């Protein structure tokens, strides 16, 4: 560590914080879904437990970007870690106290914590990449893809961890173990994260919360429907379907979804290679060419077909094969779309006060998750998984249409 550049040390600290937080976030999500399903709650009631988690994510990203530019990204990241510890502690109450309003309140704090942490980590990357270095754009893309991909791989491990801890330690024991580990991470972050990280030279006014960039606004709208299309069937409907229709236990549901998220994260980390543009004559990658609108349209168009194909396959005698195979394909294509979008927003964001644009963008991301989560529980309870999949495909078509307004090249 002593031989590394200060920027690289800060990048590793930020990534380590993000990893630790993501493990607890993924585990908590799976713990809540499986535990309350075990208690007899329906799909819509379980979805409502995450309502404030997603709603406050919308608010947090909008205000968090402004706070990050004024106070520094180290402070917003540490506040996020601290709030997650409080959210976990709120669930260490007797079972009789774990009512829907109480759990919703704990999830609200967790949602604030998660989006403060994510916004801080994604914004900080742009401040750590040298602006005048050769291939700076490619370096930025690789850093973003690595952070995003590794985060999602660990979120998958968190899903497995949640199912495993629920079986081994019970709900309260699992929550206590995660709170203890995260407290150690939080104390390390308070000691070692650089104080002035991400502070804007000119303190932004509250009126500057909303982005004035057309590219950022269009990408944010596309992101909203992209993530709504994932969560409308993945967040609540899929785990409950696997448990109720396939008869899987906690280990199987948690393990399968963990494997899916891990593979999804690995593909995200490889996205710079998958989306690299090639020379029409030689067929070789153009080292300096970065993806833009054309790549966003191509990969979203492929993704939009998958939920519709899965929905058609669920009516056949090979529904297991269609669902599992389709889910794997969806994960790979969604990973590329997500990583590409994550790079584009950091690329489009202004240099001074980067967290303002990134925070606005992830506000749209959180709004998409909120919409998808609520619809996931409602559609599944009323019409089943097929309805969730058809709505997912329709949302991806909307994403495709919106993405046509992006600049021709990322530099625009």
3D architecture notes:
The chain has 412 residues and is an all-alpha fold. It has 13 helices and no strands. The protein has helices at 6-38, 43-49, 51-71, 73-90, 100-128, 136-192, 214-234, 237-244, 250-274, 293-313, 319-348, 354-383, 385-403. It is globular and about 50 Å long. It comes from Shewanella chilikensis. It holds the Pfam family MFS_1.
Briefly say what this structure is.
Helix content is 77%, strand content 0%. The chain is mainly alpha-helical and 412 residues long. The model is unreliable at 278-285 (pLDDT under 50).
Q: What profile does the largest beta sheet have?
A: none
| Inertia-based shape | globular
Number of strand elements: 0
End-to-end CA span? 37 Å
Report the uncertain regions: 278-285
**Beta fraction of the residues?**
under 5%
Quaternary assembly: single chain
* Percent of residues in helices: over 70%
Note the run of SSEs as H and E: HHHHHHHHHHHHH
How many helices? 13
Structural class: mainly alpha
Overall pLDDT score: 79
What is the radius of gyration? 20 Å
Transmembrane segments: 12-37, 43-67, 79-100, 160-193, 214-241, 253-274, 295-315, 321-348, 360-383, 389-406
Pfam families: MFS_1
InterPro entries: MFS, MFS_ArsJ, MFS_trans_sf
Protein name: MFS transporter
């Amino acid at each position: 560590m002593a031989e590394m550049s200060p920027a690289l040390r800060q990048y590793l600290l930020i990534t380590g914080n993000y990893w630790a937080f993501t493990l607890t976030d993924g585990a908590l999500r799976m713990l809540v879904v499986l535990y309350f399903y075990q208690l007899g709650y329906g799909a819509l009631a379980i979805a409502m437990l995450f309502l404030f988690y997603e709603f406050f994510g919308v608010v947090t990203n909008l205000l968090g970007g402004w706070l990050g530019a004024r106070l520094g990204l180290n402070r917003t990241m540490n506040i996020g870690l601290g709030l997650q510890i409080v959210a976990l502690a709120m669930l260490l109450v007797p079972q009789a106290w774990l009512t829907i309003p109480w759990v919703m309140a704990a999830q609200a704090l967790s949602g604030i914590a998660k989006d403060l942490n994510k916004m801080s980590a994604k914004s900080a990357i742009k401040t750590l990449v040298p602006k005048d270095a050769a291939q700076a754009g490619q370096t930025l893309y690789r850093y973003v893809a690595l952070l995003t991909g590794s985060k999602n791989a660990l979120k998958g491990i968190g899903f497995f961890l949640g199912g495993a801890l629920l079986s081994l330690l019970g709900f309260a024991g699992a929550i206590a173990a995660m709170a203890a580990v995260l407290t150690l991470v939080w104390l390390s972050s308070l000691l070692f994260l650089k104080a002035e990280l991400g502070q804007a030279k000119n303190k932004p006014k509250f009126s500057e919360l909303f982005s004035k960039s057309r590219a950022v606004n269009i990408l944010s709208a596309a992101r909203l429907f992209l993530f709504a299309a994932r969560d409308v069937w993945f967040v609540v409907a899929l785990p409950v379907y696997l448990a109720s229709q396939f008869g899987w236990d906690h280990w199987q549901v948690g393990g399968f979804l963990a494997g899916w998220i891990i593979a999804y994260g690995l593909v995200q980390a490889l996205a710079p290679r998958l989306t690299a543009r090639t020379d029409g004559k030689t067929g070789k990658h153009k080292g300096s060419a970065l993806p833009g609108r054309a790549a966003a349209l191509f990969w979203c168009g492929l993704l939009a077909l998958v939920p519709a194909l899965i929905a058609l396959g669920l009516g056949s005698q090979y529904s297991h094969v269609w669902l599992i195979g389709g889910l794997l394909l969806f994960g790979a294509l969604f990973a590329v779309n997500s990583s590409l979008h994550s790079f584009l927003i950091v690329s489009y964001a202004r240099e001074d006060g980067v967290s303002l644009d990134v925070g606005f963008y992830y506000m749209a991301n959180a709004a998409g998750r909120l919409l998808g989560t609520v619809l996931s529980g409602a559609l599944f309870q009323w019409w089943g998984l097929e309805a969730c999949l058809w709505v997912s495909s329709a949302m991806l078509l909307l994403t495709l249409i919106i993405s046509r307004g992006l600049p021709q090249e990322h530099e625009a």
